[in-house]
């Protein structure tokens, strides 16, 4: 069951107890995240032409150079964090990568000078902060129940981790902002500046897939 | 059907989402009270029994033994094969910390013990990547804050 999900393990990069593994599963996510990070670095942001209410002329929305720089940097940080989250085989480390992606997502839209975008990202920041409680709580409870955090060792320990898995999934749902808690993130997507906004979307999708893999293996 | 539409409309406002999420988390935690919880005695990062070291050693809750660069301290690790120097610098103390250690039995709980006093290998060696990520999360949030502060119109 485990080997069928992660596939063959090609190699590992050990940082002490925290091991980064290159399996068939994680390599795909890693490469996708890196390719999109390069795309974000190379492309220029989109320009939006907005129709005005009760006025004849249209308005051109341009991302200024100052704003572009910080947003591109945050998008690259988000891409690197996503790529790292794909590789890590340690539960606590993975939770930290999730949090890093969450805060980089806020950073991508924080430079937009629009009220409703900033309000939405503030609300998303609140959710991301609340979501750290179940995420790290789950990691801590798994450590207490099994005595280890390594994703290679956890499947070998025959302990029921149902509740821990549920709260880890709940924390992931808040951090990536999926279905019922989507409203604040959907407002964030409406900000101008396409390739950076794309990074928010891609990172959540990849992290959801990786969390499902982790919850199925442990 | 009309009521369902009202619920969707309510959910679509960004300012209610944190509220809904907190209620959702609270309900899950109530479910957690009904589940059995226990502690596995075979822990990877063990802690000594509370007060087992008090007034016996000045490094009270954190005494792991060992001599710097000679005798490794008592530490457990998930993958000892990747950590050849495990426990070698745990016992290192700065000259100031050494001086304070001779004066009091409560050195381990003072603020002097933390930076450069007792080097915690769990933080800096076996789980070093965690420390890197924690500080980078803090750094990113400071970058966001300072950018918004210096570019407010």
Automatic annotation (TrEMBL), chain A:
Spans traversing the lipid bilayer: 18-43, 95-112, 124-146, 166-184, 196-216
Coiled coil: none
Listed InterPro entries: NiFe-hyd_3_EhaH_prd
Keyword list, A-Z: Membrane, Transmembrane, Transmembrane helix
Keyword Translocase: no
Endoplasmic reticulum among keywords: no
Protein's UniProt name: (NiFe)-hydrogenase-3-type complex Eha, membrane protein EhaH, predicted
Classification of source organism: Archaea, Methanobacteriati, Methanobacteriota, Methanomada group, Methanococci
UniProtKB/TrEMBL annotation, chain B:
Residues that span the membrane, as ranges: 20-39, 132-150
UniProt cross-references to InterPro entries, sorted A to Z: Prd_NiFe_hyd_3_EhaF
UniProt xrefs under Pfam families: EhaF (PF09879)
Keywords annotated in UniProt: Membrane, Transmembrane, Transmembrane helix
Entry protein name: (NiFe)-hydrogenase-3-type complex Eha, membrane protein EhaF
Native organism: Methanocaldococcus vulcanius (strain ATCC 700851 / DSM 12094 / M7) (Methanococcus vulcanius)
